Amino acid sequence: MIRDFRYLAPKTLEEALTLLNEYRDECKIIAGGQSLLILMRQGLVTPEYLIDIKGISELNYVQSDAKEGLRIGALTTHRAIEKSPAMKNGFSVLAEMEHRLASIQTRNWGTIGGNICHADPAGDPTSVLIALNATVSTANLKGKRNMAVEDFCLNFFETALEPDELLTEIQVPPAPPRTGAAYTKFNIIESDMATVGVAVSISLDAGQELCKDIRIVLGACAPTQVRAKQAEGVLRGEKITDNLLKQAGQVASQEVEPISDISASEEYRRELVKVLVARVGHEALARARQAQERGLRT
Ligand SMILES: Cc1cc2nc3c(=O)[nH]c(=O)nc-3n(C[C@H](O)[C@H](O)[C@H](O)COP(=O)(O)OP(=O)(O)OC[C@H]3O[C@@H](n4cnc5c(N)ncnc54)[C@H](O)[C@@H]3O)c2cc1C
Description:
Blueprint: E1 6-8, H1 13-23, E2 27-30, H2 36-41, E3 49-52, E4 62-65, E5 69-73, H3 78-83, H4 92-99, H5 104-109, H6 112-118, H7 124-131, E6 135-140, E7 143-148, H8 149-152, E8 153-155, E9 158-159, E10 166-172, E11 179-186, E12 196-204, E13 211-219, E14 226-227, H9 229-235, H10 242-255, H11 266-297
Parallel strand pairs: 1-3, 2-3
Antiparallel strand pairs: 4-5, 5-10, 6-7, 6-10, 8-9, 11-12, 12-13, 13-14
């Protein structure tokens, strides 16, 4: 049973920040409630005040610009991102990821900001956003901070947010030329959380097909989504082949320390990392080559 609380529903960011500043540790922010309500029902979170920010329309938007890239308001639902025409401008991997996140019902109400702030290491958006080198903005009454998504997630269900701060926006920079990105997750029940998730972004150099830059991100393998930096090192500067991708998968599977839980043993997760890094890397490479061909034609 959920313990009684006082419900507050600010309509502007300023109002929400004022309430958050007043109640701090006594309150909890609720957006879509898809994750928070489960914790409240289990009695793990028992706020005196619940600040419902879902009605703050100024934090609900998707904007894209060729120079600036993508800007997504924290209260944008998963479904709105999945369906946004802006995803067609080089961000299709985000729409694909959202399409496999939960059920339509959950996607219709859950928000990208809530997902990132919940900081579940198995959450899908964070892996893809780190692969795309995304940043977030947070705000309190004193002002605004910006940081890489990679730095925002600190530990299991813990973020860099201060008690008086809200996450307000996610920014995804335009992809460098000749870049491709892909994501997949292995999950036991379709539309459920990842047992292991892998996102890869590859940028090729001009002409020689060498890997100029690469980001490999693993979900559900550590207390937060993590870069597999040693595996990235196997591919960076090289001409990527199937053998090299397999080698990168092998290295990635050894550089993380996944836990054993009800979904999978540590060994099984390592095996998934090995296979999925090679598979997703292959897809990202194919997309980088397509981007290169498109670039050569224009
Ligand atoms: C059945 C089911 C299946 C799911 N499957 C998946 C899946 O496959 N992949 C996946 O990634 N996720 C999955 N989820 C989680 C889902 O994506 C949620 O939408 C998301 O985790 C939380 O979004 P929300 O808006 O509902 O946040 P809430 O539940 O309202 O909030 C979550 C946390 O974030 C805080 N918060 C929310 N917004 C802000 C903000 N703007 N600033 C500061 N703090 C904030 C809240 O205080 C709370 O601590 C699933 C959920 C369910 C119920």
